[in-house]
């Protein structure tokens, strides 16, 4: 698969880059994608939720009414889950939601996500660029030049560029990451994937090793 290499203002450089069919043209594996996205979202959870059970409620342990003769059910403690202010039955407790996935499955999921993007013609390649200073206006001008101003975009840089990252940080639909941070969830969450020219070979090395 060949794509034209563009300048960051949208002009054609006249060069083309060849994208590997082993990454951008496989038959996507939906189940691998599902598992990888599920793991990513699970890892975002803090797991700090907590509700008090009846043994943790502050209250009297005195029997609140006699056992028999009241016409109602017997009750032994005001801390019972049946009463307002009582403990919660099987309430949430702090836990770790993360789980393990094999490296090859995660690799297959990322390749599948990239293949989906290529199939939908949502991949662009830019020549390597940088901004002289961190300015949101510069990043917006770049998106306008690429006709992506109203799209969710994921820009993949070969290495961290602080000026480009800071320029995009205030834009809710723009995300900038480096090659080693590429993940299935963010690939699929973006409408368009924008690769820097230097990221292409690094991405192939990372995913085909």
CATH superfamily of the largest domain: Ribosomal protein L4/L1
Reading side by side through the largest sheet, how are the strands ordered? 2-1-3-6-4-5
Rg from alpha-carbon coordinates: 27 Å
Query: How many β-strand runs?
Result: 6
How far apart are the first and last residues' alpha carbons, in Å?
A: 20 Å
Low-confidence stretches: none
Structurally, the number of domains stands at 2
Strand content: 5-15%
Mean pLDDT: 93
Counting helices, strands and paired strands, the structural category is alpha/beta
So how many helices? 7
CATH architectural group of the largest domain: 3-Layer(aba) Sandwich
Main beta sheet: strand number and arrangement? 6 strands, mixed
Form type: elongated
CATH class of the largest domain: Alpha Beta
**Percent range of helical residues:** 25-40%
CATH-derived topology of the largest domain: Ribosomal Protein L4, Chain: A
Write the H/E string, N to C.
Answer: EEHHHEHEHEHEH
InterPro entries: Ribosomal_uL4, Ribosomal_uL4-like, Ribosomal_uL4_dom_sf
Subunit structure: Part of the 50S ribosomal subunit.
Family: Belongs to the universal ribosomal protein uL4 family.
GO cellular component, one term: ribonucleoprotein complex
Please characterize this protein's 3D structure.
The chain is built from 7 helices and 6 strands, in the order E-E-H-H-H-E-H-E-H-E-H-E-H. Strand 1 (2-6) and strand 2 form a beta hairpin. The model has no long low-confidence stretch (mean pLDDT 93). It has 2 domains: 2-45 and 98-208, Ribosomal Protein L4, Chain: A; 47-96, no CATH class. The chain is of the alpha/beta class and 209 residues long. It has a 6-stranded mixed beta sheet with strand order 2-1-3-6-4-5. One of its GO terms (biological process) is translation. Keywords: Ribonucleoprotein, Ribosomal protein, RNA-binding, rRNA-binding.
